[in-house]
């Protein structure tokens, strides 16, 4: 096998992970910011490429290295292109871009796009190249000590996670994320669900696929590559299973979005030791990561009150630390035939505490470097340029205000139902708030209780029914039997005295207890109102809360556009039924 070709193919797989990050971040946030998420993930790679090209790569991979801390840039890509290591540049670039893009999700929905671009340049030009050189440049001081981070649990993921935490902390939470309990003065976290779990799940699978290249790119033989693929499969599988089981036991139901995070947590956890641990060690690393990510997400969100919409800090920061330290525990000498896969031994495999100490030192050093430099960077950006979008921009959505697009889903623009009714206490007060979808169009529009059509002496009455979606078909069949041939059906959300069901999103109670309902509007004249009401009650009545409500209104007039008929005549079709 030509590992030079595999090296470049794997780099291409890592680049494709940008797509996965984009999908996860967009899916876990609101639709009004999807375009902004897309732009950030596009431009952190593009601008990062320029910064890494100009200075970052030279600092990280220079042969002339000062005190094992920083390389002396030689700009070989410009001065000696023919002898430049093209493959090594592309390989290191895509990893650098990964560290940058991790931050996007944690700071989503309220960051100035220009400020994000500035941060990207700082991280990819200076902060990441220096610490990554410590780990992967053979002259780096951590590499000289025997520090093991095979594919970047600490050098990439922990750095991205810590940067995300600092950025989100300085930036502050999204509007409405936290409310203050007047009795205790404590902040209470409110759930803000993302707009597309499907998009998030697809992004997770793309990331998992790309991770085979992420972990396996540096493999030196087929046996090592096979071992890496094995550990890169086991860890996320165990991580997702652990997260699912833990949230199921904890919350009563398995949490979908958190389980996706559990798979990513397992991947981050195994990245440092992917070539240095066996199946048993991989299982333990994945299982711990799967539980750790849940605890970390909830602690960061509800205790520290740092708003991280996608769980980037927990997945990449916390599990990156765990995965790196775990190498000092589970590293095992592994050989397959003549191929040496790993020659390191951790604490549990007779290697003593030496490697564990080196791993801990490396984690603390990289974390300290990242925390100090990125705190300074974000502070300066905030003071000089401004970091956070305005309140108006955040409310309207960054797609519109930052990029001039009304929606990233133009063909699926939500239509707001403005047909709001003012109801007294105890009625279905929230019932008509939501997005409207017309199933059939009735002739009547505005409600005005029984007004007589002067020309015919017939009364025009509008009847509105609010009930459970599953009751639509029985009601439609019953309407057909009594001669009603036209109705309008709208999907609505709201609550009555039951105030909805209790649900959680990523461990946080949902703030709006709304239930899905349907609103059926019928305008009648020939058919007695009492007959319609009795028909509806016969179908809907169970004696339980949530059977529904019936509202009766006067209609001032009805005009059939096709024929010009008005009032009673407008409601009669060829079959002599009310429309």
Name the descriptors.
579 residues; 53% helix; single chain; two-stranded antiparallel sheet; alpha+beta; five-stranded antiparallel beta sheet
What profile does the largest beta sheet have?
5 strands, antiparallel
User: What is the 3D form?
Assistant: elongated
**What is the subunit arrangement here?**
single chain
How far is the first residue's CA from the last residue's CA? 73 Å
Share in helix: 40-55%
Q: On the 0-100 scale, what is the average pLDDT? A: 87
How much strand?
5-15%
Task: Please count the beta strands (DSSP E, at least 2 residues each).
Answer: 13
- How would you classify the helix and strand content by structural class? alpha+beta
Q: Poorly predicted ranges (pLDDT <50, ≥5 residues)?
A: 414-455
Radius of gyration: 30 Å
The number of helical runs is 18
Topology at a glance:
Layout (H helix, E strand, L loop, with lengths): L2 H25 L6 H28 L3 E2 L3 E2 L4 H4 L6 H21 L6 H24 L4 H5 L7 H19 L6 E3 L6 E3 L7 H20 L5 H30 L4 H16 L7 H25 L8 H19 L3 E3 L2 E4 L11 H31 L6 H6 L1 H6 L47 E2 L6 E9 L4 H11 L5 E7 L9 E2 L2 E2 L5 E10 L4 H12 L8 E6 L12 H4 L9
Antiparallel strand pairs: 1-2, 3-4, 5-6, 7-8, 8-12, 8-13, 9-12, 10-11
Helix pairs in contact: 1-2, 1-4, 1-8, 2-4, 2-5, 4-5, 4-7, 5-13, 7-12, 7-13, 8-9, 8-10, 9-10, 9-11, 10-11, 10-12, 11-12, 12-13, 16-17
């Amino acid at each position: 096998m030509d590992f030079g070709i595999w090296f470049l193919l794997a780099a291409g797989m890592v680049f494709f992970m940008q797509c996965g990050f984009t999908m996860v971040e967009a899916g876990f946030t609101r639709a009004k910011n999807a375009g902004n998420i897309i732009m950030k993930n596009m431009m952190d790679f593009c601008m990062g490429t320029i910064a890494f090209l100009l200075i970052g790569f030279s600092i990280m991979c220079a042969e002339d290295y000062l005190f094992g801390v920083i390389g002396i840039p030689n700009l070989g890509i410009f001065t000696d292109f023919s002898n430049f290591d093209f493959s090594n540049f592309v390989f290191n670039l895509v990893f650098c871009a990964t560290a940058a893009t991790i931050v996007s999700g944690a700071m989503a929905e309220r960051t100035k796009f220009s400020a994000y671009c500035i941060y990207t340049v700082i991280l990819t030009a200076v902060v990441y190249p220096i610490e990554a050189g410590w780990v992967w440049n053979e002259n780096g001081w951590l590499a000289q000590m025997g520090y093991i981070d095979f594919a970047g649990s600490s050098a990439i993921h922990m750095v991205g996670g810590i940067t995300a935490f600092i950025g989100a902390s300085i930036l502050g939470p999204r509007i409405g994320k936290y409310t203050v309990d007047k009795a205790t003065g404590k902040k209470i976290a409110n759930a803000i669900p993302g707009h597309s779990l499907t998009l998030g799940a697809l992004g997770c699978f793309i990331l998992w696929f790309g991770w085979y290249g992420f972990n396996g790119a540096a493999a030196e033989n087929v046996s090592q590559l096979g071992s890496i693929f094995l550990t890169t499969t086991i860890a996320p599988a165990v991580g997702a299973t652990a997260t699912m089981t833990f949230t199921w036991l904890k919350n009563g139901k398995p949490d979908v979005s958190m389980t996706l995070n559990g798979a990513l947590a397992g991947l981050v956890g195994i990245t440092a030791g992917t070539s240095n641990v066996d199946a048993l060690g991989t299982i333990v690393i994945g299982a711990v990561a799967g539980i750790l990510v849940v605890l970390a997400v909830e602690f960061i969100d509800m205790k520290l009150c740092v708003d991280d919409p996608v769980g980037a800090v927990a997945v990449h920061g916390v599990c990156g630390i765990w995965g790196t330290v775990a190498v000092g525990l589970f590293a095992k000498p592994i050989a397959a035939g003549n191929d040496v896969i790993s020659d390191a031994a951790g604490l549990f495999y007779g290697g003593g505490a030496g490697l564990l100490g080196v791993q801990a030192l490396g984690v603390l050093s990289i974390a300290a470097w990242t925390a100090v430099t990125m705190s300074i960077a974000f502070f300066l950006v905030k003071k000089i340029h401004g970091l956070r979008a305005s309140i108006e921009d955040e409310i309207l959505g960054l797609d519109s205000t930052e990029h001039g697009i009304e929606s990233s889903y133009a063909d699926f623009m939500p239509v707001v139902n403005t047909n709001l009714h003012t109801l007294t206490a105890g009625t279905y007060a929230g019932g008509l708030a939501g997005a409207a979808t017309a199933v059939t169009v009735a002739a009547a529009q505005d409600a005005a209780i029984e007004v007589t059509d002067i020309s015919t002496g017939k009364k025009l009455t509008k009847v509105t029914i609010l009930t459970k979606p599953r009751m639509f078909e029985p009601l439609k069949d019953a309407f057909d039997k009594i001669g009603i041939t036209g109705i309008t059906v709208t999907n609505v959300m709201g609550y009555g005295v039951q105030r909805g069901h209790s649900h959680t999103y990523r461990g946080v109670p949902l703030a709006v207890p709304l239930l899905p309902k349907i609103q059926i509007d019928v305008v009648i004249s020939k058919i007695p109102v009492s007959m319609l009401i009795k028909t509806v009650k016969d179908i809907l009545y169970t004696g339980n809360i949530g059977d529904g409500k019936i509202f009766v209104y006067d209609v001032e007039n009805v005009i059939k556009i096709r024929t010009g008929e008005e009032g009673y005549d407008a409601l009669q079709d060829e079959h002599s039924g009310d429309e």
